[in-house]
Amino acid sequence: MFVATAIVVGLLWFFYKNWVSTYSYWKKRGVPFYPAKFPYGSDPNLVKFKEYRGYTVDKMYRELAPEPMFGIFVLRKPMLVVRDPEIIQHILTKEFSHFRDRGIIKLSDKDVINHHLFNLDGERWRALRIKLTPTFTSGRLKTMFPLFVSCAESFSSLLLSKVDSKVDIKELTGRFTADVISSCAFGLDTDVINHPDNKLRNIGIEGIKLKFLMKLKIAIIRLLPGLSSLLPIRFISVEDEDYIIKLIKNIVEQREKNAIVRNDFIDLLIQLKNKGNLGDDGQEFEKPFEMTMELMAAQCFVFFIAGFETSSSVQSFCLYELALHQDIQSRLIKEIDETIEKNGSLTYKAVQEMEYLDMVISETSRKYPTVPTLVRQCTKSVTLSTGQNIEKDTMIIIPVWSLHHDSQYFMDPDKFDPERFSKENRDSIVPYTYLPFGEGPRMCIGMRFGLLQTKVGVVTLLRKFRVEPCEETNIPLVIGGNSATTASDKPIIIKLIARY
Ligand code: HEM
User: Fold this and answer.
1) Which is it for strands 465-468 and 493-498: parallel, antiparallel or unpaired?
2) HSE on the CB side for 268, CA within 13 Å?
3) Alpha-carbon gap, residue 39 to 359, rounded angstroms
4) I need a surface site. Which of 36, 44, 132, 370 has the fewest CB within 10 A?
5) Chain centroid to CA 145
6) pTM for the full predicted model
7) Is 287 exposed, middle or buried (0-12, 13-18, 19+ CB in 10 A)?
8) 3-class DSSP state for residue 39?
9) Cα(31) to centroid of ligand 1, in Å?
10) Residues 432, 438: contact at Cβ < 8 Å?
């Protein structure tokens, strides 16, 4: 009995010592760091996701000011938080070849739906990124614009039925953006606006929730990447994965059988599939790979969730702020009315001409960046020209939320002030302190599309309605910890008032 107890104690002691052995990592390298405690590391919230990641990193960001960068520990893994904009520029852009990967999850062959642009690393990411970049050029967006308008009309009819009601604005804008992305990228008429209980949308909503089991798996795989094939991380169930693969297969078959060409995202993927291997057209890819149906479905999945959730989130934060700032809302309504009158209707050109709208959306994206932290992995050790040495495999965190709320860069950061983005003021923003879409070759591929659908949604609503706060409006708004993106912890409730 004594021997058995001694062995167990000995093993536990060995495990503990081994676990905390990494906690001296940053000290040994002379990098300032946020101390760690067994077992969670620098802050339990980075593992448990109980608090919004932006808030947790921000506490450290403030405590370790003005260090240009500092170390933290997530469980026992050392990570580097970079707070200096010049170093951020090196990582995201100038020295991109050393920081190409995100390294967030180690993909196993079993979790096919996760093999998408956001998660892929290395040559596979590069090959796909080059091929998919033409998806949303401004020329293509212009051609797609009538589809935006058609969804906007249905959205407007839905809003008419809600006049003088208190509405969950994220729920409504989410229906609109789900229809826009379905019709523009996949040629699907989902009509989520009128039938919100749509399977594809529900899968998308589930896909960005951080569930307990998933958090646990992410933590384990970060520590022991070799287990990734035994513990595939499922953001959605196997049935939902099959549903998406079948759906994409059907669309592809229909198009090929009936020679339908829509010049959309699916067409681009079909062209890549029919070409055979990616990377066989003179580009120097190490390992050419095939565009399989599963790989196509994975790209569609990420375009769908990234396409609808992010933009509806920006729209709902924007409308919340407009409800609280009636003066800003009036000025925006005036611009919308005048520009649409001048152009005769809601056109692509009219939206591009709305300067104040652009300022309002930019300020919303500053105050509520959809992605609170960007992540990169150092793939080749490097000494930056700013003098810092970064070792291979170091995980880098760019604290977007903190930069956007740092009074050094944005005075009175809690104030909603679109003037920061006026023509005169925009140029004084310090480069790499404003990163709502990331930066560099790995920045958001859907930025233009996301901005356009966000703007069309806000314009559609304000053409006929005003928004006001009501007793159920949460002031101030608190961001919750249970979502991969920035989302209010409670529904955003505001009141819709008819303008005419
Ligand atoms: C307002 C809307 C949107 C916001 C705020 C947003 C934000 C972001 C951010 C911050 C990143 C990470 C960038 C980085 O690491 O540097 C990202 C990546 C990405 N976004 Fe968006 N996004 C939006 C809309 C969209 C749309 C509409 C799509 C597609 C239809 C999309 C698809 C993607 C993809 C595929 C990536 C990964 C890119 C890569 O790793 O190469 N996003 N987005």
Assistant:
1) antiparallel
2) 20
3) 44
4) 44
5) 23
6) 0.94
7) exposed
8) coil
9) 31
10) no
Is 134 in contact with 143 (CB distance < 8 Å)? no
Check whether 324 has a pLDDT greater than 90: yes
Residue nearest to atom 41 of ligand 1 (CA): 442
For residue 325, give the DSSP letter.
-
Task: Indicate which atom in ligand 1 lies nearest the CA of residue 449.
Answer: 27
Instruction: Return the SS3 of 234.
Output: coil
Which tokens in the block code for residue 155?
Answer: 């959205």
| Cβ of 129 less than 6 Å from ligand 1 | yes
Which residues lie closer than 8 Å to 266 by C-beta, 6 or more apart? Answer: 185, 186, 187, 248, 251, 252, 255, 300
Strand, helix or coil for residue 493: strand
Residue 74: φ, ψ to 5°: -110, 115
As a whole number of Å, the CA-based R_g of the chain is 24
Ligand 1 centroid to Cα of residue 445, in Å, is 6
Residue type, 128: L
Ligand 1 pocket test, candidate residues 365, 377, 437, most atoms within 8 A of CB: 437
Q: How far is the CA of 120 from the centre of ligand 1 (A)?
A: 14
Annotated binding residues for heme:
444
| pLDDT in the model for residue 280 | 47
Cis-peptide into 436, omega within 30 deg: no
Spatial contact of 103 and 121, defined as CB atoms under 8 Å apart: yes
Residue range 261-281: mean pLDDT, rounded: 75
**Which residues are CB-neighbours of 233 under 8 A, at least 6 positions away?**
105, 111, 114, 214, 217, 218, 221
Cα distance from N-terminal residue to C-terminal residue, the chain: 83
* Residue count (the chain): 500
Nearest alpha carbon, ligand 1 atom 28: 446
Phi, psi (deg, nearest 5) at residue 38: -65, 140
- Phi, psi dihedral angles at 70 (to 5 degrees): -150, 155
Decide: 457 in ligand 1 pocket, CB within 6 A.
Answer: no
Rounded Cα–Cα distance for residues 144 and 187 (Å): 11
Gap between the Cα atoms of 146 and 445, Å rounded: 22
Measured from the CA of 400, which atom of ligand 1 is nearest?
A: 10
Q: State whether ipTM is beyond 0.90.
A: yes
pLDDT in tens, 49-72: 789 999 999 999 999 999 999 999
What b-and-e string marks burial along 71-104, b requiring 16 or more CB atoms within 10 Å of the CB?
bbbbbbebbbbbbebebbbbbbbbbeebbbbbbb
Do residues 198 and 186 lie in contact, with contact meaning Cβ atoms separated by under 8 Å?
no
* pLDDT score of 422: 98
Mean pLDDT of 397-406: 98
Q: Is the CB of 117 under 6 A from ligand 1?
A: yes
Q: Strand 389-390 vs strand 289-290: parallel, antiparallel, or unpaired?
A: unpaired
Q: Is the CB of 313 under 6 A from ligand 1?
A: no
